[in-house]
Amino acid sequence: MAIVPMKHIEIVAMQRDAKKVVELLQREGVVDLTEPENEPDPDSGLSMIPTSASLSQLEKNLDMVRSAMAAIQEYAHIKNSMLAGLSGRKELNLDEFAAKADDVEKSLKVAYEIDGLIRTIDTETPAIMHVTHQLDHVLPWKDLDIPMMYEGTARVACLIGSIQGPHTELTLHNALLTAFEASVPADADSTVSFPDYEVEIVSVSKELTCLCVICHRNDKATVEETLRKIGFTIPSDPTRHPPAHRIARLQKRIAEAEKTVAEAKEKIAAHEPDLPGLEFLSDYLLMRHDKYEVLGRLFFSSKTVVMDGFMPAKSSERLISRLEKKYTVAVELRDPLEDEEVPGEFDNNAFVSPVEDIVQSYSPPTTRDIDPNPVMSFFYYLFFGMMLSDAGYGLIMVVGTLFVVLRLKPEGATRKNMFKFMFCGISSVVWGLMFGSFFGNVVNAVGTAFFNSDVSLDALWFNPVEKPMEMLILSLLLGFIHLMAGLVLKFINMWKHGDRLGAIFDVGSWWVVFTGLGMMIINMAIPTGLPLDRIGPWVAIAGAAALVLTQGRSSPSIPGKILGGLGSLYGISGYFSDTLSYSRLMALGLVTGIVGQVFNTIGTVIGSGFVRVLVFIPVFLFGHAVNLGISALGAYVHTNRLQYVEFFSKFYEGGGKAFAPFSTRTKHFKFKEEK
């Protein structure tokens, strides 16, 4: 259980085998290929082949295939399970993969066909919207039996337009008279009157009144001017024929477009049996894309190709054997150089490996780091369970994660996360039983409310709600042990890398200080009859003196050494503040139990008899679902924080490069491992 020892590997293969060698490396997935920083020197005889055109075409095809798959799922109404994303990939051996690869051209033709149908839908759908918009403008004129562009005869003028708002002939007439009278000068002849006219209301809605006004052509100017004063506007796109003709034409266009879209969707849905082939094609294209991306980073001579990278030492023998068995290659394996950036990878058992992503998310390790996962995993599960601290919630997590692992068979990080939360759930069950919490106090609440019984689930240790001070002391004690575990790892790492004096002075001195302080605290809390209260201060002073004398040793001057030593004593405040941070273990543990009890109380105080049962069930399910979600999220966030801020800061440097081997990043299929 440690950081995986890495080897640098350099492979020189024949140029004719370049693609096949890269494909083998991709299937094996154990080599983190080095990306060149610069172009090769022209005098070296090496060059790089351009692959941008191939990559561009592969990306285009990949996007098209993914779009086709999404269209089939949409129009064939394929509903994926909420847990579908957790399922593992289907395994294929090389023969099965080759057989499927023979059909990729057929699947690609299907993708092109679906792409054409998608383009048809994308073209016709906006057309439908545009024509519908046109139809909405002309529909109010459907009862007009003359063209909207009609202007009348030699003696009769026809004005066709609309006015905002609903109007009748009477309200329109009154509006016209009012507007006309307002425009007549005060000294005008009293016999001046509004010209005679006829009006036909074509349609009326809340927003618009469409109308046709007829008057003598000599009066057209007066009538039109007055109409405009009350908001009269002519149509922006008048018809040359009665509007019914345009309405029929637009409706026909909409019907044809809708039929075209419906047929395209039906044809796409009919390709549902081709979906597995398209899924394989998407993986196949992705693999080719990754392969050509790597080929574009390799150095080629006239007859050979050169590639190098890092790989786990334990995998080197198998890979070299496969390469030499199938191809003409020269392989050089060596230990990494001091100035090389070596990718970091962990190798741990099933209990420890699920939390490796926590460390990788913080910072990948370097060759000088010690693997924190074995120690961290124990405290991670311990603290998560203590903060969730409910046996019922923990049981749900265990059953749920086991169902996903056994039924869906997830892979990679998803599988590790399932085991991580399963172990967290087990820890929650244990702490819940220790604290007497099973869905809060549901046993007592149900017994009292429905069976008139005082039955309850007693805590195997103590109830934090009743004894919060004991919970706080336990939290701080576990936190202090966690911090000391970090110092132990720091001591081991420094000793391992030859800095033994540093391990003794920088870590051992603090142990002496904390031992003295611990002796005084123990004597105050638990009378032992030993003179710990007199010995403890001297032990602590001895540790402090060691810090003062050694922590400034790197300074070249004597004052600097003294000030450096004295300044190191300030670090004790950091340890105290870090220890206090673990009070969150008590806080979150109490909140989970108290909120659960609140929901149980709400569900058992409303109504009586059967009504109380009907109230209790939904309140119980909803309340505890919310409490589980919020409490589990809080436990996850704060458990991570305790590792990142308090634990890692004591010993872990990080800053390395994560191991990212060239492998198959497929979504639907994977290669069955060859024996």
List the helices and strands and how they pair.
Elements: E1 2-3, E2 6-14, H1 18-28, E3 32-33, H2 52-75, E4 90-92, H3 94-101, H4 104-138, E5 156-164, H5 169-183, E6 197-204, E7 208-216, H6 220-229, H7 243-269, H8 275-295, E8 299-300, E9 304-312, H9 313-326, E10 329-334, E11 343-344, E12 346-347, H10 356-362, H11 373-388, H12 391-408, H13 412-435, H14 442-451, H15 468-496, H16 500-525, H17 532-550, H18 558-568, H19 571-581, H20 583-605, H21 609-647, E13 657-658, E14 669-671
Helix pairs in contact: 1-8, 2-4, 2-7, 2-8, 4-7, 4-8, 11-13, 11-20, 11-21, 12-13, 14-20, 15-16, 15-19, 15-20, 16-17, 17-18, 20-21
Structure explained in plain terms:
59% of the residues lie in helices and 10% in strands. By secondary structure, it is an alpha+beta fold. Among the domains are: 149-234, 2-Layer Sandwich (Alpha-Beta Plaits), CATH 3.30.70.2750; 353-451 and 467-650, no CATH class. The protein is extended and about 125 Å long. The model has no long low-confidence stretch (mean pLDDT 90).
